[in-house]
Amino acid sequence: MRTAIVTGRDLPPRGVSSRAEFDAVATNNGGRVHLGEDLRTSARFGPGDLEAVLAHELDGARVVLFTEDDLYVQLPPGRDPEPWMLARQARPLAEAPHAEVTKVGFWHPDVAGFAARLRASHPHLVVTGGQAPYPEFLTITPTGAHKAAALSLIAEALDIPLERTVAFGDSDNDEVMLELAGYAVQVGTLPLLTRHADVQVAGHGELGAYLNAVAERLEQRAALAPS
Fold it and tell me: Are residues 81 and 112 in the same domain?
């Protein structure tokens, strides 16, 4: 069995990556993919795309630009940086090197409206969030930087047919990956994902028990296999 992390974050969740070794890690919604220590892809915004994203008209929004090594933030007046921003030594948005930006995040009550406008004007960009379970958070990644692309790249690199892949997801950025995977496990009850799910797990609290049951079945199958 081969395993991979595919996450919308720019770094893999520490609580997951510290507990096991993974054959591949995809971050930024699949825009950056490592196979072991080998960087296979790192998507960047095309000419004019980042400028269009930053022309958002969301007064009072918190905005974060991510590069491979740093993050750059713009906060409304009087708003203190979040602890994770301080821990990552975030710098002012104005200092961001536009050619190196790999992802943009917005926090604002009207991100759904902005997402609709951006999808209409720049349909090639990957826009996720702005709906349950993250109605006030929006992520924009470059063309092709989505989880289905990451799953396809990883499966090909590991010589695994897509129909033999299993994917887990709980939010809208997982939809394209669950649709592509050979077997889709939905975590939670988001209606958007239900149509793609082969099985549904009630929530993250129940996911551990589900994975343990899968591991036990695999061990039993391996024990019965001829040596």
Answer: yes
CATH number reported for the structural domain that contains residue 87 in this entry: 3.30.1240.10
- Rounded-to-integer distance, Cα 177 and Cα 165, Å: 10
- Band of the pLDDT at 224, cuts 50, 70, 90? confident
The burial class, CB within 10 Å (0-12 / 13-18 / 19+), for 125 is buried
Query: For the purposes of burial, counting CB atoms within 10 Å of the CB of 197, is it exposed (0-12), middle (13-18) or buried (19 or more)?
Result: middle
pTM, to two decimals: 0.92
Strands 32-35 and 183-187: unpaired
Query: Which are the contacts of 143, defined by CB distance < 8 A and separation ≥ 6?
Result: 43, 46, 49, 124, 125, 126
Segment holding 153, helix H or strand E: helix 147-157
What does the pLDDT read at residue 17?
Answer: 65
The answer to whether residues 62 and 79 touch, using CB atoms and an 8 Å cutoff, is yes
